[in-house]
């Protein structure tokens, strides 16, 4: 009886790991994902090993609207993230400042995470963000804040972050690997620009209405730049709180 109970306990404790490890198998049922692995995974593995990033990985994405750049950071057992790849946006939408309402064409600014891996996207492959979060919803007030914000391929956008199909294949494969390895939430920080003091002064002069929001967002940029670690993020009364 004791042996049976121990077996039941072992199975129960293994269920989360089994669920995570099944993510890759489920994704590989889709042709676009299989093709992405066939085309990209061998080279990515080589690059990961060269960077000392073998084994299970965690990833973090930072994106900068003004520079039109998406940075993909990776760590394994290390405590700090390492910049692994940099990709250029292949199209742009809107202007500086966060997304406020549906159909405003704005790319959001703020702290998000990937909550959808779509292998049959209209835009080749896509990674969905948890927009709108509590900060976005409070900012939008009674207006509909919009939804369906993705990092995707196909080089067209009305508020998303578009990459070429070749580049989204790489990002998508690495996202699958991270989630399959146990990373349930992949952070995505979207900044209006590289939030240095000089840039803050420059762009606040041009967009004074964004000063309060950008100063609220800047500590996340400063912390990650200084420590290569993610700050703990929470949302309180329409503002981000970082620890």
UniProtKB/TrEMBL annotation:
PROSITE patterns xrefs: LD_TPASE
InterPro entries membership: LD_TPept_cat_dom, Transpep_catalytic_dom
SUPFAM superfamilies: L,D-transpeptidase catalytic domain-like (SSF141523)
Keywords: Cell shape, Cell wall biogenesis/degradation, Peptidoglycan synthesis, Signal, Transferase
GO biological process: cell wall organization; peptidoglycan biosynthetic process; regulation of cell shape
Superkingdom: Bacteria
Pfam families: YkuD
GO terms of molecular function: carboxypeptidase activity; transferase activity
Domain L,D-TPase catalytic, residue spans: 59-191
Signal sequence interval, chain numbering: 1-19
Tagged with keyword Signal: yes
Active site: 152 (proton donor/acceptor), 160 (nucleophile)
UniProt pathway annotation: Cell wall biogenesis; peptidoglycan biosynthesis
Keyword Transferase: yes
Family statement drawn from the similarity comment of this UniProt entry: Belongs to the YkuD family.
Protein name: L,D-transpeptidase-like protein
């Amino acid at each position: 009886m004791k042996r049976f109970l121990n077996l039941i306990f072992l199975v129960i404790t293994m269920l989360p790991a089994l669920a995570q490890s099944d993510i890759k198998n489920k994704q590989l049922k889709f042709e676009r994902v299989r093709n992405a692995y066939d085309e990209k995974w061998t080279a990515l593995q080589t690059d990961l090993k060269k960077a000392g990033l073998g084994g299970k990985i965690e990833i973090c994405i930072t994106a900068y609207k003004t520079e039109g750049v998406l940075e993909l950071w990776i760590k394994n057992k290390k405590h700090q993230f390492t910049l692994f790849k940099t990709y250029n946006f292949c199209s742009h939408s809107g202007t500086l400042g966060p997304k406020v309402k549906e159909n405003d064409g704005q790319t959001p600014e703020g702290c998000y995470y990937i909550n959808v891996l779509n292998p049959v996207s209209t835009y080749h492959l896509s990674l969905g963000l948890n927009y709108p979060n509590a900060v976005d919803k409070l900012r939008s007030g009674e207006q509909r804040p919009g939804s369906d914000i993705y990092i995707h391929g196909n080089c067209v956008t009305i508020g998303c972050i578009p990459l070429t199909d070749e580049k989204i294949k790489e990002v998508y494969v690495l996202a699958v690997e991270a989630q399959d390895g146990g990373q349930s939430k992949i952070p995505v920080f979207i900044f209006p620009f590289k939030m240095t003091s000089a840039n803050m002064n420059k762009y606040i002069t041009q967009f004074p209405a964004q000063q309060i929001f950008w100063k609220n967002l800047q500590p996340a940029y400063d912390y990650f730049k200084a420590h290569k670690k993610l700050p703990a993020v929470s949302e309180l009364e329409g503002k981000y709180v970082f620890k």
